[in-house]
Amino acid sequence: MFIETRKLTKKFGGLVAVNEVDFTIEKGKINAIIGPNGAGKSTFFNLVSGSYTPSSGQVFYKGKDITKLPPNKIATLGVARTFQTTNLFEQSTVLDNVIVGHRLRTRSNLFDAVLRTKRYKEEEKKCRDKAMEVLDFVELTHVRDELAVNISQEEKKRVAFALALATDPEVVFLDEPTAGINPGETEGLAALMEKMVKRGITVCLIEHKMKMIMKLADKIMVLNYGEKIAEGTSEEIMNDQAVIEAYLGGDASA
Ligand SMILES: Nc1ncnc2c1ncn2[C@@H]1O[C@H](COP(=O)(O)OP(=O)(O)OP(=O)(O)O)[C@@H](O)[C@H]1O
């Protein structure tokens, strides 16, 4: 089992945001979590990536119980994530944004930085090389010297992907990766997710764009009021009575 949650639960006071969710994230696949607003999708992400401690239940990563590990420890195991909004240094170049983002996660300390030790210089070069490599992967080499303020919304999303990929993750959690961009650009990002999977990276995403997710995802979990109401392939999900009811009145064709 790659990633598995067992009866994962998060309560905020009297509200059960995630309720005893059992789910497995399949290695080398595109896994998606969908559900109406407030269903518990982001909370589930935060539990698996260690940003929240569960009220009860467990998270396993490659057989290891990671339930109580802090986010930085989970990240070093090969788990990366993006957030709904990525704050870039607008007056820095795209390349510098990725270098800095990556450096924050590498090993040399302030002492190394001030004295510009050998280790610092070596790491600086490694970070730069890595940043160039991931920018090439997300197809942003042509804008790497542009200031972040000048790139498009879709390009900013690609920078967020690059930041996550710079840590050489085995799995990437993408929180609404296509929010706020137009349908044409959405297709480009979907293709990028497929490219990640081809490279051997497992993808798990939260998404509201149903048409896209039905085409893209290998496996889907549907949450509603914190509970898993369905799990399966696109076809299984589209024909599931509980899912249809949860979305009635909502816009499932967005
Ligand atoms: N830190 C928090 N403190 C209190 N309640 C919270 C907190 N985070 C989330 N909630 C509540 O938990 C429930 C689930 O929220 P969550 O953000 O996980 O849903 P979601 O499915 O990601 O929603 P959306 O699609 O709107 O982003 C909601 O009722 C929300 O108000």
UniProtKB/TrEMBL annotation:
Taxonomic superkingdom: Bacteria
GO terms, biological process: D-alanine transmembrane transport; L-alanine transport; L-isoleucine import across plasma membrane; L-valine import across plasma membrane
Protein name as it appears in the record: ABC-type transport system ATP-binding protein (Probable substrate branched-chain amino acid)
Keyword ATP-binding: yes
InterPro entries on file: AAA+_ATPase, ABC_AA/LPS_Transport, ABC_transporter-like_ATP-bd, BCA_ABC_TP_C, P-loop_NTPase
Organism: Halobacillus halophilus (strain ATCC 35676 / DSM 2266 / JCM 20832 / KCTC 3685 / LMG 17431 / NBRC 102448 / NCIMB 2269)
Pfam families from the UniProt entry: ABC_tran (PF00005), BCA_ABC_TP_C (PF12399)
Recorded GO MF terms: ATP binding; ATP hydrolysis activity; L-isoleucine transmembrane transporter activity; L-phenylalanine transmembrane transporter activity; L-valine transmembrane transporter activity
Gene3D superfamilies, sorted: P-loop containing nucleotide triphosphate hydrolases (3.40.50.300)
The UniProt record lists the keyword Chaperone: no
